[in-house]
């Protein structure tokens, strides 16, 4: 791929300036079809404009919509120390170009009121300036800037119209190129993460989960960072996807990153990206954060991030800018952070292994996910949901869980939480014949400290045990009856008034009412 880019760029250099056979739009199309490399594409695009319009210097700048800031994406004919000076001129021109949303021609930059006071005009002997706004489907994307320091009156009205047509095409091309970049690599790294084909069951009935979900639902609608805290396997990854799907960014990308599984020597380039030719054989790579621009980044196991990367992550949150490895200027990025951990970050802060400032920034809203053993009321729904998914996954006919089996499932301790529950159910799906789900008979309960098998997940009083069993039976009957109280009461063999009383006692509500 990189050899193809090099060949195309070399071909541009061989073209004669102003040749009637030189068609920049077809050349850009050829590049676009050949590369999923945003940086090289933008540089090749700028080179095409320079050759077509006899420019001595040029730049492509992008407009970061969330902050209104401008970033240099590509440049030509400028030394590193001259770029800031040229920016000084371009900011003046940008304001007029973008306000009018049309190309701008300055025939004599030494006398024009917009540019005559510019230090860069005098320093680099710039004679003419030509700019045009670049737009995509969402509005203003950026701007292409050209100037000439060798030929008086180098640009004319025909050049101005030509650059505007070029910029219009470039907007379409850049949008397509960014889509290619986004699709060229998977959205997840270091783990499978939640799959869109396997949505979690959010028909929660347990008081602890209802108390967690109510404020989380309000936080999801905002743009603040969310920190999910809980034991391994409690479903933090599914809740992160749920937050994304219930936010204003739901149409944007969702990037899953497992910080614990990224090798230390790759974590910086994977998150922030790396520029081309930083080292021999290194090609451009877009970072996970930029790939999620406009969407949500889920940093699972954030406590595993090295301290140096924590500092760069903090900058992205606070300034909406990132620095690629080997990059010369910052890149704008707009992402919403959802983080998760099973570690005590506050204790890590005191030990100096986690940055205090980053902890406060990601902990604006913290949601503590209770373990499965503390929300028995949710087990029947979760088990049924997982069973349906595993049946589809293994090409099995739908199964049902008999009440005796469901009671057995609810009696297990589930030290591994939902992840363990899913594994046990999948094993049962594989081994079960017929339409009634059965647990693997070889499943053994964990041993207590004295070596005796644990017959219940926790030691509790008889009233608590009765309450749990009653809640389990009532919720099961209500689900089977579609939450019709009269029908559920008939199945339970109790009056409807009694069922209503017990529902009130145990705080049981129809899912449509509490979510």
Features:
Helicase, Ruva Protein, domain 3; Beta-Lactamase; 14% strand; 13 strands; Rossmann fold; alpha/beta; 515 residues
In short:
This protein has 515 residues and is α/β, with parallel strands linked by helices.
Fold and architecture overview:
The protein is α/β, with parallel strands linked by helices and 515 residues long. The protein has 3 domains: 182 residues, 2-Layer Sandwich (Beta-Lactamase); 183 residues, P-loop containing nucleotide triphosphate hydrolases (Rossmann fold, 3-Layer(aba) Sandwich); 142 residues, Helicase, Ruva Protein, domain 3 (Orthogonal Bundle), CATH 1.10.8.60. Helices cover 45% and strands 14% of the residues. It contains 20 helices and 13 strands. The strands form 3 sheets. It has a 6-stranded parallel β-sheet. The N terminus is likely disordered.
Report Rg.
30 Å
Percent of residues in helical segments?
A: 40-55%
| Biggest sheet character | 6 strands, parallel
> Would you state the CATH class of the largest domain?
Alpha Beta
The CATH superfamily of the largest domain is known as P-loop containing nucleotide triphosphate hydrolases
The CATH topology name of the largest domain reads Rossmann fold
- Whole-number total of structural domains: 3
* CA(first)-CA(last) distance: 49 Å
Low-confidence stretches: 1-22, 186-192, 445-460
* Number of discrete helical segments: 20
Bulk shape: elongated
* Strand coverage percent: 5-15%
Helix and strand composition category: alpha/beta
Q: What is the name of the CATH architecture of the largest domain?
A: 3-Layer(aba) Sandwich
Record the strand order, biggest sheet.
Answer: 6-8-9-12-7-13
Total strand segments: 13
Question: What is the residue-mean pLDDT, rounded to a whole number?
Answer: 78
């Amino acid at each position: 791929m990189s050899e193809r880019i090099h060949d195309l760029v070399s071909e541009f250099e061989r073209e004669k300036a102003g040749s009637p056979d030189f068609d920049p739009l077809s050349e850009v199309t050829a590049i676009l079809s050949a590369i999923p490399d945003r940086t090289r594409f933008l540089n090749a695009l700028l080179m095409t404009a320079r050759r077509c319009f006899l420019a001595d210097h040029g730049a492509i700048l992008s407009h970061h919509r969330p902050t209104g800031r401008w970033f240099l994406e590509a440049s030509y004919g400028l030394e590193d120390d001259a770029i800031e000076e040229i920016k000084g001129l371009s900011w003046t021109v940008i304001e007029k170009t973008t306000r009018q949303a049309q190309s701008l021609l300055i025939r004599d930059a030494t006398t024009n009121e917009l540019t005559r006071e510019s230090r860069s005009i005098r320093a680099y002997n710039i004679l003419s300036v030509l700019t045009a706004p670049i737009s995509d489907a969402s509005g203003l994307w950026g701007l292409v800037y050209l100037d000439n320091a060798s030929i008086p009156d180098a640009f004319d009205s025909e050049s101005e119209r030509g650059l505007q047509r070029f910029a219009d095409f470039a907007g379409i091309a850049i949008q397509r190129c960014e889509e290619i970049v986004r699709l060229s690599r998977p959205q997840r790294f270091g783990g499978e993460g939640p799959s869109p084909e396997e949505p979690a069951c959010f028909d929660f009935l347990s008081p602890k989960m209802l108390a967690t979900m109510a404020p989380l639902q309000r936080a999801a609608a905002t743009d603040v960072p969310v920190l999910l805290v809980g034991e391994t396997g409690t479903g933090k990854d599914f809740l992160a996807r749920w937050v994304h799907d219930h936010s204003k960014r739901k149409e944007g990308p969702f990037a899953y990153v497992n910080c614990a599984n990224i090798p230390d020597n790759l974590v910086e380039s994977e998150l922030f990206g790396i520029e081309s030719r930083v080292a021999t054989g290194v090609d451009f790579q877009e970072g996970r954060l930029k790939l999620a621009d406009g969407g949500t980044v889920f940093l699972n196991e954030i406590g595993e991030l090295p301290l140096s990367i924590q500092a760069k992550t903090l900058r992205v949150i606070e300034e909406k800018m990132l620095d690629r490895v080997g990059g010369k200027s910052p890149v704008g990025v707009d992402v919403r952070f959802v983080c998760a951990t099973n570690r005590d970050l506050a204790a890590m802060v005191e030990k100096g292994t986690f940055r205090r400032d980053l902890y406060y920034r990601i902990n604006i809203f913290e949601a503590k996910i209770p373990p499965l053993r503390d929300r028995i009321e949710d087990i029947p729904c979760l088990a049924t949901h997982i069973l349906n998914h595993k049946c589809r996954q293994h090409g099995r006919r739908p199964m049902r869980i008999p009440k005796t089996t469901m009671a057995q499932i609810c009696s297990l301790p589930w030290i591994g939480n939902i992840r363990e529950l899913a594994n046990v159910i999948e094993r049962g799906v594989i081994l079960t014949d017929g339409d009634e789900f059965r647990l693997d008979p070889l499943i053994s309960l964990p041993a207590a400290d004295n070596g005796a098998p644990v017959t219940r997940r926790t030691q509790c009083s008889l009233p608590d045990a009765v309450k749990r069993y009653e809640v389990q039976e009532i919720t099961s009957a209500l689900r089977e009856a579609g939450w019709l109280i009269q029908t559920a009461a008939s199945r339970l063999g109790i009056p409807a008034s009694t069922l209503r009383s017990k529902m009130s006692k145990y705080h049981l509500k129809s899912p449509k009412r509490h979510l």
